[in-house]
Amino acid sequence: MPAFPPFPQAAAHAVRDERLRANLRHATHTIRDKRARAVAELADWAELRAAGKAIKDHTLRRLDHYLVQLEESVTAAGGTVHWAADAEEANRIVADLVRATGETEVVKVKSMATQEIGLNEALAAEGITAYETDLAELIVQLGDDRPSHILVPAIHRNRAEIREVFAERMAAWGRPAPEGLTDSPAELAEAARLHLREKFLRARVAVSGANFMVAETGTLVVVESEGNGRMCLTLPRTLISVVGIEKVVPTWRDLEVFLQLLPRSSTAERMNPYTSLWTGTTDGDGPSEFHLVLLDNGRTAALADRIGRQALRCIRCSACLNVCPVYERAGGHAYGSVYPGPIGAILTPQLRGATSPVDASLPYASSLCGACYEVCPVAIDIPEVLVHLRERVAEQGGHPLERAAVAAAGYVLDHPAALAAAERIAGRTRAVHPRRLPGPGRAWTDTRDLPEVPAEPFRDWWRRNRT
Questions:
Q1: pLDDT tens per residue, range 332-383
Q2: What mean pLDDT do residues 183-203 have?
Q3: Which of 122, 125, 308, 430 could be a cystine partner for 453, CB 3.0 to 4.6 Å?
Q4: Sign of CA dihedral 79, 118, 310, 52
Q5: CA 339/CA 358 separation, integer angstroms
Q6: 3-state secondary structure of 350
Q7: Distance between CA 125 and CA 389 in Å, rounded?
Q8: Strand (E) or helix (H) holding 287
């Protein structure tokens, strides 16, 4: 993983970028307003949300059973299942499978799991080039950039910036951008279509993720809006799908619930324009070879946490990002993870551990306003998990002065006489109180004023006026 600064430092830099903030504000407000209208159309949205939560919780409690059933179903349908404990193992499996075909290029459907494990970089190290085919992912790849949103990875770019990326970088990756390209959305989309079409027709190997996996039949599902996914899933001879183990659902009937929840929460559509489903292999129809790589990479550890495991319900809709005041101002890059926003603040520290400075900072990347919980289609109580993870980070220890201050406060608050004496001393010395705290407390007072201490403690006032 590249070295990223902790969230406070990254966010402090991001909020000074006025163009970034304008792009984010326009995009997130537009998406969340459309989502609110789409959700309001359904009188039973609350019941659908409760059903999604219940299905996910049931599946996570019996995850071992459903994963075994999934493997049996995929194998029976002509596919091959591989198990990957971590990113290194998953990357090695995919690289070996691609090399076995003799190909040196793959086309990719947008997949957060492959971004999580750094698959593109791992394949490049093996001499294999991975081409992103989702429009936003293509923009990110051509611009040598990083995704900043779950649903719209290039949300931090405006049309003028995208035109510049296409004009300067497309030729290095294949078909160049047309001469005289403007920032018209239609022209940009056409340039991407022409650039990608030759890759679809040439590719013999594709790599995908999946939104859901149905244990009952071994069926995988990808929902998308552009048609690139359908091209990747049907044209190549070999299809390799890398999917987190939490994406399994028991039955087709369960899938029905999520195919109503996901499009309205993500793209504010009643149904995704393209819902692609594939089950193993079929002679003369689609890829002749299918491999499913089931990825753990920290998910089992998250599953063992009674409070934290609810993050594994996530269906990657991004609704929580679009209502988050912190994300709107800081942007996705500040989170130092492929999973930005509120869900990233609780998922990343569980998948990677909360030991590094960047991961330990993520549970604090929130105002705890609760807007994320209100819009989550599977009712993940993100504020609850944030507080839980903050406790975990605190237990790891902090600055010596901070630990001493907390210990002293705990003693004083536990002894009423000591608290009364401290209040009186604070009141009598308030004229010499500093305006900013020293040491680790300085960061807190960089952005807020210390409260003024009254001349007389409340308990003394009460005794004098009410006894």
A1: 999 999 999 999 999 999 999 999 999 999 999 999 999 999 999 999 999 9
A2: 95
A3: 430
A4: negative
A5: 13
A6: helix
A7: 35
A8: none
CB 236 within 8 A of CB 135: no
- Strands (E) across 193-273 are located at 205-208, 212-214, 219-224, 238-244, 248-249
Distance in angstroms (rounded) separating the CA atoms of residues 20 and 14: 8
Handedness of CA 310, 312, 317, 322 (dihedral sign): positive
Exposed, middle or buried: residue 57 (CB in 10 Å: 0-12, 13-18, 19+)? middle
Rounded Cα distance between 444 and 439, Å, is 10
Here the tokens at position 165 are 């990326």
Cα first-last separation, the chain: 64
DSSP 439: G
Render the burial of 347-368: b for 16+ CB within 10 Å, e for the rest.
bbbbbbebebebbbbbbbbbee
- What is the residue-wise DSSP string for 99-140? HHHT-SEEEE---HHHHHHTHHHHHHHTT-EEEE-SHHHHHH
